[in-house]
Amino acid sequence: MTEHTLLLPQLRAEFTHTRTDPQLLLAAGGRAPAASWLRQAAEGRPLWCIDHGLDSCWQNQLLPQRLIGDGDSASPEAWQWAEKLGIPIHRFPPAKDFTDTQLGLQLAEQYVPDSFFLLTGAFGGRFDHAFSTILSAAAAPLSGCLCDEQECLFFLKEQESLFLSLDRLPKAVSLLPLTAQCSGVAIDGVRWPLQNALLQQLQPYAVSNEMLDKHSMKVANATGILGVYLCWNDL
User: Fold this and answer.
1) C-alpha angle 198/203/205, rounded to 5°?
2) Are 22 and 134 within one domain?
3) Which of the listed residues 101, 118, 148 is the one where a domain comes to its end?
4) Within the chain, where are the H helices?
């Protein structure tokens, strides 16, 4: 069975049936990741900025390959920095159907097909934005995850599994059915394991699980789209 690996500053993720090469880091405009985490995550990966996510790159002098958005939330100084450096800009009007993050995911599919995206700056802020981002990322044709130093959300689609090795134990692990249901769900390495479980989207009970002191866990999903969520801090 082929395994594909993703390295983040706080963990190692090994996927079956999900390709993780090439990898693309997208910096969006939610809660900014810690500077040290962002610099490590950007090493060896192309970096795109989505509107206000540009400010994190500007403040850390990380040069993005592309800038996407309507320019209504990035600071004027950061936008001028990008223009001065000649960074390709995909600018859209503020009055539009899709969010800047949705447009970023669409452009990623267009310019880097078959890539694995890492979307940071996705957490925090308004619930409606978070809701849109999570479902849009889950349903995107590309595989990917939402991540920063405080939270990570991985997406497992049909017949996929994930093995995680962590540098430090999270506060909580939750399994979130992002389609009407997910079947054949299994998790081990946690206080409350599951085997061949059926999870319903409208009754998501598999939340706030706890990892055992082994710093590793495995999750499998047979059908549907399953979110595997880890949280390191009390938010």
Assistant:
1) 75
2) yes
3) 148
4) 35-42, 53-59, 76-84, 100-111, 127-139
pTM: 0.95
Beta strands in 128-180 (DSSP E): 143-147, 151-156, 160-166, 172-177
pLDDT in tens, 160-213: 999 999 999 999 999 999 999 999 999 999 999 999 999 999 999 999 999 998
**Residue range of the domain that includes 228:** 150-235
Indicate the number of domains in the chain. Answer: 2
pLDDT, tens digit, for every residue of 139-168? 999 999 999 999 999 999 999 999 999 999
pLDDT single digits (tens) 104-113: 999 999 999 9
If asked whether residues 121 and 5 sit together in one domain, one would say yes
